[in-house]
TrEMBL record:
Keywords: Ligase. GO terms for molecular function: acid-amino acid ligase activity. Residues 452-575 form the GH3 C-terminal domain. GO terms for cellular component: cytoplasm. It comes from Ensete ventricosum. Belongs to the IAA-amido conjugating enzyme family. InterPro entries: GH3, GH3_C, GH3_M. This is Indole-3-acetic acid-amido synthetase GH3.1. Residues 358-436 form the GH3 middle domain.
Length: 606
């Protein structure tokens, strides 16, 4: 067993007594991982003993692992949908949790096209806050002097809705930023942001970003770290600077905020910082007007020591672009979390992105691990409950799917993340994030699976029927070369009357453009929200490839050792030679001409 030895005794190296206490807490939790897990499960089962859910499975008040594992099934969101729907509709009885459900957190994972609704309880905010509070003490072990400046973080809230029963439904970070925990946080010199809270709390994406960027520019020499939650968010901010630097410079030169920002609390907060500064305006304009944007981050914010963004999992595709814009600054992936539960943190935050491992904190929930591939074939297959392994018992090198039991009432819930054990910190395993199951395409927080893509292609290809044409084969690619990234779908068409003019007719008349939009309309609500409200995904593109291209694709795969009997068209491709092959066969490219429909309201019955 590889036991990590970096943080032990770290509390002795801590930047201050408060940090030392947090580091001791990490040591204590990880040294006693199994005992903490046992205690967490007993606590959860004791408080929830009388819930409808645990009674249904005859737990009879037992709080031990063996009874729990024998009686409680391993479930997915779809299994819990009836209970969740009842809570959403206003049933306040103790269905899943003995503590009242305070709100729903809307996951970027979707079910039937809508965000999953994760029940949460008030005290979970404390648990999330606790995990946040561990991040800087760890970071301070690796980077000195972070109390001497500020963090330029692009943080955003998203729109919220009410369920039919009146509970608020919103993303977990929106819930956190709007909480007292965040807004009334005590002053901490290691955690000072350049963004005014009013700018973070503004739901209008343009006004929020504009104000955050402006304040970042005004305090550019104070900035010691630049970040966003995910890499895609930071790249969006850079794109925003590319598009709006002239306007920002005008504001800086004049000492007056553009009238486009109308939110009075933002205007008030910005007014405290904004004074005419023609010299700064000239500097920013000179940097931004250069055609080469390499290392723009360190040029504009020269004291930046690292980027604080998640670049693991689906975000790894952005590493080269971030390296380019930051001139190779280290990228710190500090934590691993979800709407269901905050899981853990990276104890070596300055390591290379390819080396990132997260240590799951055993106090956050009760964690179990389903050996990957142990769920039979395909969705809906029944899980053999006995296969699940406890946190302390996972094995280095093995891959598992994460299963959680939370204080808020999820019991043996499959998160859908696949993790590989890379080692241990004390007795707590550390995990590399491998992937989220069933995600084919992702640009930002959107997650499109194969079934959703298939449905979207089917719905769009119906528009080809009047032309006697159909889609014979398709595949897709998340194109992130430009910001914002966009979905590219390669279509091979078959015109039934086989005349070249019929095929041509399809690619004229705006039919393909309408197909692009029809595909977008059929994709899930997180995709559409990113397109419409956030502008963080660009218009979907269909590239029509010439007849026979997919056969060539198969020939290529077979030449590389694929079995002809087992060959299936990959529904998503990222391997450069395959992309090159596809792109060299493109006969026409078409973009969605408009935004798909999206409103914060959920579609009926979801
Ligand atoms: P959400 O429920 O929308 O907050 O999404 C949570 C999901 O985002 C997780 O289950 C992971 O699939 C992904 N995720 C969160 N943190 C990380 C991370 N540090 N690295 C890779 N993927 C992550």
């Amino acid at each position: 067993m590889a036991v990590e030895t970096v943080v032990p005794a770290a509390s002795a190296k801590a930047a201050n007594e408060k940090d030392a206490e947090k580091l001791r807490f990490i040591e204590e939790m990880t040294a006693n991982a199994d005992a903490v897990q046992e205690k967490v499960l007993a606590e959860i089962l004791t408080r929830n003993a009388d819930t409808e859910y645990l009674r249904r499975y005859g737990l009879g008040g037992a709080t031990d692992r063996a009874t729990f594992k024998a009686k409680i099934p391993v479930v997915t969101y779809e299994d819990l949908q009836p209970e969740i729907q009842r809570i959403a509709n206003g049933d306040r009885s103790a269905i899943l949790s003995a503590h009242p459900i305070s709100e729903f957190l809307t996951s970027s994972g979707t079910s039937a096209g809508e965000r999953k609704l994760m029940p949460t309880i008030k005290e979970e905010l404390d648990r999330r806050q606790l995990l946040f509070s561990l991040l800087m003490p760890v970071m301070n072990l690796y980077v000195a002097g972070l109390d001497k400046g500020k963090g330029l973080y692009f943080l955003f809230v998203k729109s919220e809705t009410k369920t039919p029963g009146g509970l608020t439904a919103r993303p977990v970070l929106t819930s956190y930023y709007k909480s007292e925990h965040f807004q009334s946080r005590p002053y901490d010199p290691y955690n000072v942001f350049t963004s005014p809270t009013a700018a973070i709390l503004c739901a209008d994406a343009f006004q929020s970003m504009y104000a955050q960027m402006l304040c970042g520019l005004l305090q550019r020499l104070d900035v010691l770290r630049v970040g966003a939650v995910f890499a895609s968010g930071l790249l969006r901010a850079i794109r925003f600077l590319q598009l709006h630097w002239q306007e920002l410079c005008n504001d800086i030169a004049a000492g007056a905020l553009t009238p486009k920002v109308t939110d009075p609390s933002i205007r008030g907060a910005v007014a405290e910082l904004l004074k005419p500064d023609p010299e700064l305006a000239r500097f920013v304009a000179a940097e931004c007007s250069k055609s080469d944007w390499a290392a723009i981050i360190t040029r504009v914010w020269p004291n930046t020591k690292y980027l604080d963004v998640i670049v693991t999992g689906a975000m790894a595709q952005y590493i080269p672009t971030l390296e380019y814009y930051s001139g190779g600054l280290p990228m710190a992936c500090t934590m691993y979390a979800s709407s269901e539960c905050f899981f853990g943190l990276n104890l070596k935050p300055m390591c290379d992105p390819s080396e990132v491992s997260y240590t799951i904190m055993p106090n956050m929930a009760y964690f179990e691990f389903l050996p990957h591939g142990g769920d039979g074939q395909g969705p809906g297959a029944v899980v053999d409950k006995t296969q699940l392994v406890d946190l302390a018992d996972v094995e280095v090198g093995h891959e598992y799917e994460l299963v959680i039991t939370t204080y808020a009432g999820l019991n043996r819930y499959r998160v859908g993340d696949v993790l590989r054990v890379t080692g241990f910190h004390n007795a707590a395993p550390q995990f590399r994030f491998i992937r989220r199951k069933n995600v084919l395409l992702s640009i930002e927080s959107d997650k499109t699976d194969e079934a959703e893509l298939q449905k979207a292609v089917e719905s769009a290809s119906a528009l080809l029927r009047p032309y006697n044409a159909s889609v014979v084969e398709y595949t897709s690619h998340a194109d992130t070369k430009a910001i914002p990234g966009h979905y590219v779908i390669y279509w091979e068409l078959l015109a039934k009357d086989a005349s070249p003019s019929a095929a041509e007719a399809v690619t004229r008349d705006g039919v393909m453009e309408r197909c692009c939009l029809a595909m977008e309309e059929a994709l899930n609500s997180v995709y559409r929200q990113s397109r419409v409200a956030d502008g963080s995904i660009g218009p979907l593109e269909i590239r029509v490839v010439r007849g026979g291209t997919f056969e060539e694709l198969m020939d290529y795969a077979i030449s590389r050792g694929a079995s002809i009997n087992q060959y299936k068209v990959p529904r998503c491709v990222s391997f450069p030679p395959i992309l090159e092959l596809l792109d060299s066969r493109v006969v026409s490219a078409h973009f969605s001409p408009a935004s798909p429909k999206w409103t914060p309201r959920r579609r009926a019955n979801q």
